[in-house]
Structure prediction request, 295 residues.
Amino acid sequence: MSTSLRNNTAVALAVAAFVLLLGGLALAFYWVPDAPIEGFRQRIFYIHVPVALTAYACFGWAAWKALRLLWLRDERYDLESYTAVHMGLIFGILTLVTGSIWARTSWGVWWSWGERQLVLFLVLFLFYSAYFMLRYSVDPGPRRARMSAVYALFGVVLIPVSFLAIRLAEGLIHPVVFDRNVNSNLAGSQLFTFLVCFAGTLALAASLYVNELTGKRVDERLRELREALT
Amino acid sequence: MSSAEKYVTAAYLVVLTVLLAYLVIYAFKLSRLEREVGELAELARRRRDAERTSEPERDSEEVAP
Prediction:
């Protein structure tokens, strides 16, 4: 993709993210009625769940790029996979913090080690945090690219485990919204607002990804240029 | 403001704060890249000037018997 096309994509994504997130926020606070049990605090749902799903999407994207690298032996996918892990971690931090705030207001605790969903997400987050330690402990080159790709691929296995944890476990307090009864769990206005917010966070993640990737590529090319000139 | 309202506001503010922090970090990165481009441009200019000054000397050496 040419630089100008990539810049246009980044601008379009940033505008889409801004409009969708602002719209989602307005819908969440001025249109959606209070939830029957959770009341006003249920509005954290419209930021927490989209951010969590976006983190999964980023890690999934990183694994896809890692697979492409291993399959096609094309090293440009290394930087793309690395950038996606970077974005996934940013959204992972947001998931943990917003989830913790929601837990405090709903359950009265900031964290519950008995909750498999929370612990598994933390494991996923720490697993991908260790990706950086692995990456920077190996010299740049094809070996590092392959090792990082294998690691990113292993991590993606944790995503369905983390997602299914609350559906497979019993006696938990973490709510399950997206199951076969999604239509009875969420009213039409709630589902619509959630989808707007989710589209907004996905657009935001994509925009940040394109910008970060461009920055990392420029950084890499500058290093090559410096080596050639000195 | 009720307790629930405070927590909801805190959750949204956290997201905004993290995004702003990311923006600040990215701004620092951009200014570093700009500085490095400037240094490389200066390096390339000096190298070009050095090549230009060495060329007439080489030409005069070739002409001399």
The CA atoms of residues 3 and 214 of chain A lie 8 Å apart. The longest helix of chain A spans residues 188-229. The mean pLDDT of chain A is 86.
